[in-house]
Amino acid sequence: MKSYRIACIPGDGIGKEVIPAGQRVLAALAESQRDFRFEFSTFGWGADWYREHGEMMPADGLQALKPMDAILFGSAGDPDIPDHITLWGLRLKICQGFDQYANVRPTRILPGIDGPLKRCEPADLDWVIVRENSEGEYAGVGGRAHQGHPIEVATDVSMMTRAGVERIMRYAFKLAQSRPRKQLTVVTKSNAQRHAMVMWDEIAVQVAKEFPDVKWDKELVDACTARMVNRPKSLDTVVATNLHADILSDLAAALAGSLGIAPTGNIDPERRYPSMFEPIHGSAFDIMGQGLANPVGTFWSCVMLLEHIGEQAAAARLMAAIERVTANTKLHTRDLGGRATTQEVTDAVCAQLALK
Ligand code: NAD
Ligand code: K
Ligand code: MN
């Protein structure tokens, strides 16, 4: 029987609630499929590890992850530790260490879920946002001089390389080409950011020539937020920079009903390293430890994980089980206006998977 090695990194906050839930669902799926199995290894990295060891993960942590087939990640972020320490010390270390340069974020309105887009039917909204995940605004270039003094200067430089932009643009065009509408919107801010974003635009024109069957257009990022709300059907695949897509995808998730349902994959398209799948949300300090976390974003991330490792049939079965559960409003967590707990939703998805 085929066996896949999956690293689970719950991290902090509700990551510790949704990742065990995701692991249970994957185990239930493997049990009912009977044609593959999972070997899970859980890594207790994150804020607790930081309090004990002074770092978010061990220096040789990437070595431990390297032989894995995929990584399931929760969230990094703790109320008592500055966010930039938790983010850079764990999630970005893995994304950048494994060159997971494509961050892929699908959005759909799942059955039973009521989003704020009143003029939009569930079938009308089917987006994938591709986020550049290795450089741009999160390249880590910058610094502070004269810290704390009135003359202090601080910079975060958005650094884009031609190679980095070309590879994410090609990834996005290819993804758009594989989808029914073959449509891509290239998001920029090249009116204001007149160097890197102008290069981004030029590269879009150049890469588009390789994909003559893909219809594509350009949109400024601020206008794109309005278009997502006013003309959601006009979008399909979207590619944007690290920061722009980070923001657009939280908006996309909220428009689809909740931040708690949205999944993402941090993908190394060249498959040199394991890719990492996670809900797009963070530690959610306001609800942690109360059983209120919606695990659907994690389950959908598990669907993406299964697609990535080549288990398409199992991925489709899990997605169908998730949709049967969201269709039942009694199984909605509080973020969706319901009263179900993380565990009740997880039990319901596992029960769906046990049905033949
Ligand atoms: P957040 O995503 O944690 O929470 C935003 C809001 O959405 C909160 O009201 C929260 O209760 C709600 N929410 C999020 N996920 C939910 C779920 N599954 N079910 C129900 N409600 C949910 O964003 P934030 O408050 O900006 O960040 C909190 C911490 O998480 C910070 O430390 C931040 O840096 C970190 N963070 C980490 C990641 C990551 O690891 N990938 C992503 C985003 C934020
Ligand atoms: K996350
Ligand atoms: Mn984000």
UniProtKB/TrEMBL annotation:
Annotated ranges, domain Isopropylmalate dehydrogenase-like: 5-349
Cofactor(s) this protein cannot do without: Mg(2+); Mn(2+)
InterPro entries: ICDH/IPMDH, IsoCit/isopropylmalate_DH_CS, IsoPropMal-DH-like_dom, TTC_DH
EC numbers, comma separated: 1.1.1.83
Keywords, sorted A to Z: Manganese, Metal-binding, NAD, Oxidoreductase
Pfam families: Iso_dh
Molecular function via GO: D-malate dehydrogenase (decarboxylating) (NAD+) activity; magnesium ion binding; NAD binding
Catalytic activity, as annotated: (R)-malate + NAD(+) = pyruvate + CO2 + NADH
Family according to the record: Belongs to the isocitrate and isopropylmalate dehydrogenases family.
The name this protein goes by in its record: D-malate dehydrogenase (decarboxylating)
